[in-house]
Write a structure and sequence with these properties.
Elements lengths: L2 E5 L2 E3 L5 E8 L6 E8 L6 E6 L10 E3 L7 E6 L4 E6 L8 E9 L16 E2 L3 E5 L2
Length: 132
Amino acid sequence: QLQLVESGGGLVQPGGSLRLSCAASGFTLDLYYIGWFRQAPGKEREGVSCISSSTANTSAKTKFADSVKGRFTISRDDAKNTVYLQMNSLKPEDTGVYYCAADFAPSRTCVLDTNFGSWDYWGQGTQVTVSS
């Protein structure tokens, strides 16, 4: 079965950290660019970060929403078929369901496109709650 599975969410106090994982099964991620998105109750889905495939010839391998720049980092381990989102200095406004998505793009720079149909695969999401 071809799927993405997120993990690592949970409840954390403001200022804390979490690392989310996005693991693929049934296909390999190396030629895909990966995006992380989040959705808070009553709000639209928001692009958080993306990382281009390892084969993309671009100097802009990663992108971040302005709201998370300097606090979040994204990385990929193609050997483990997994992409990570490290979230530091978390704020209550970071609360939401976090989703990862994959798009087959061996040469393109990643784009934080929130359109569901723009991606080949989506995960089911993992809840992140930042609260004291």
